[in-house]
Request: fold
Amino acid sequence: MNRFVKTLSLVAAVCVLLWVSACSGNSSSGPGESAAPSSQPSGTAQDGSSASGDEGWKLKKFDPPVTISTAFAIRDLDKLRNGDTYEDNPLTRWYRDNLGIQTKYQWLLTDQGDALNQKIRLAMASGEKLPDLLPISDNVLLNELIESGQIMSIDEAFEKYASLRTKEAYAKNPDVWMAVTKDGKRWGLPTISDGNIGDTIMWIRQDWLEAVNLPAPQTIGQFETLLEAFKQKYPDKIPLALSGKALQPLAGYMGDAQFVFGETQPYIWDKGEDGKLRYGSVQPGFKDGLAKLRQWFEQGYLGKEFATHDEQKAASLFTSGEAGIIFGPGWMGAWPLEDTAKNVPGAVVKPYELPSGVDGAVGRIGTKLVYITYVFRKDFEHMEALFQYYDVSMGALLEDPNSPFAAGQGEGYDYVMVDGKPSWDVPGGAIDLRYTMATVGNTPPGMIEGPNIYERVVDGKRDTIYEQKLAFSSSPLFLEGRLVSFKQLDKARRDLFIGAPVKTMVSKWPLLTQMESEVTISYIYGKTSDAELDQFIQDWLSKGGQQITDEINEWYASAQ
Amino acid sequence: MQAAAQRAKRSGQGGLRNNGMLHLFLLPSVLLLIVFSYIPMAGIVIAFQDYKTYKGIGGSEWIGLEHFRTMFMDERIVQIIENTLVIALSKMAVGWAAPLLFALLLNEVRIMLLKRTVQTLVYLPHFLSWVILGGILTDMLSEHGIVNAAIRALGLPSVFFLGSGEWFRFTLVVSDVWKEFGFGTIIYLAALAGVNPALYEAAEIDGASRLRQTFHVTLPSIIKVGAVIGTLSLANVLNAGFDQVFNMINPIVAGKGEIIDTYVYKVGLLQGAFSFATAVGLFKSVVSLLLIALTYRLAYKYANYRIF
Reply:
């Protein structure tokens, strides 16, 4: 009896332990994955009444209120204040009180390891009902959703319900529809990036420039002269910081060498003279660029170990004073280049436009136009409400003075009112409110007339609330950098292949990209000969490259 | 010890009745294993399908060995398998010998404080993540790094460790062993502590020097432990260490450094290739299973050594 009781209580204790750990495990992963829905700071909405010029399209309030369900991926930075919840905060309250649209989170997840995409796939496989609205950042998943028949096409809804300025934004950027067009229909609403956030510009140590008494280079010849001058003046430093270890070796998000290639940018599918898409890295122009880089390597301008440097390492070479030039996006002015002045006394960093490349032309890879696409569950009935919401959230991005979100998304979060005027010095730190369900994301190209906001703010304008806001929250170097990236916009060459991977890519693409990155870097290092480089181009085509090119052109023709 | 266990078994002392408590303790782990490791094995079937998430396992098309065909038609697969085997086997060999030698040396240290401190210190690198270690090593092994500075001080030309295939493999093996040998050392030290001191005294009386004592007394006592550790590590014959390789690889050395796992990862990046990634994983598991079964059999036949 004794022994039996002992055994039983032991088993019971073990079971309780298991159950408790399982439960706490579940609850902590419960409100897990965060989807990254429309989460842009510029989520200011336009006040309905100021929808001037929108003939026939009016902002309206839905009574009884409409609920739209979506998913949200929570990040550490998504803190709430004043007892707010994810569904009840200044942002969501505004939409509920003024438009009668309530956000509901069917799925709340933590933004870890691609969590939302996994959740969506699981839901598809198990037949679970999808939320009304989902933000998709993965082309493959987008394709799977289209094929599964669980999402709806939005052509009619767009025609019927989109506001005039929404239609204008998409009319000015028609390419964004390519990724979602299949069988002549549009299966989602793409967001539109500002078209240049990731575009590369040239960052130089101004103090070095002055020390060698040369102007900022505008052609590749002048650039070479500068490299030589830096090498002479600072023999133990590296003139140009390059990230050879990036996923795409010479086109990492910092420390790239794109400008060298001029019009024939590697890694992208660009339109050739015949109107068809072709891959940049196997065009003749690519070889010329590589030859130039090899020359520079031999002369010691790149440092011997750039193949082991990833983007962060390349940037840290510059910020620690080891390198004099680095190429990278304009936003680098904020991070990491701000640290340069702290690490190296007397260092001055300045952004410049790109010099021309080996073919005499200026070129850079253009930022993707679409990062996130919104898809809608098949029987979703409130498209009209959605486009109302969308119009309001677009307002601040278009610098609409009447937007209710002009000062910020939520009082107490990213702005406070002081004496009736907005102040961005928020006690406790500014918090980004990312609960805008659907937003175009950025200021679409072509929508703002006249000089862009960075140019205005750098010039000293502080008239509109947007200019004041930007001036307050950005460092001068960041503004200068962003300004420069707007300058050579017409020279940016965008990757025109934005569909899901084509059939042959699944099996052959890893091999081809591997060959490409190996040959590229070893050629620069002098370990591969010219003949072998030519052989690589032949091999690339014969080992699947030609097939992939054909399949991509099929897609391109069908997505028009 | 074996005889005693056999006697216990015969007399019923090893039965469920007397060891029920122990079996209960084991139960949660066994359940966990069944639910999370064995039952999901059924999902291997997607390696033979053109799996589409929205169709699920039941609805996806059956394509048999197509993925395996694709894998073997990728001309790099032979090189990749070679890389994996070379790196993994080197790691296994060096990673087996290093802790053994180090434990033998450490065992001779008489100052207990020093011995314990060193023991703890060598175990610490195990807890570092390769994400961090990769960055640190890249710096340390660079032109201006400590290692090359030391090499140059010896009058030799500096070595670009991460710049050639052979040196890269060398770096992978040495850094991985450095990171993990602490664990084996602790086990061997424990085994060494269990050696009967009377044996040493007997050997000394017979006139054996310290070195001969090591060979004839110490080594035979811990060789059994060594054999267990060695045989168990065989399970990793195709695991060349994804974390490490992924963080340290660069385009120049990729030819000699790419392993099966990084290859699967890259293919998986294109996603929608779940089936393909599963197929390669299945291939890896089957090969490992065959090699392990073979080695266990050989160990039993020639060294009369059983794992089970």
In short: Chain A has a mean pLDDT of 86.
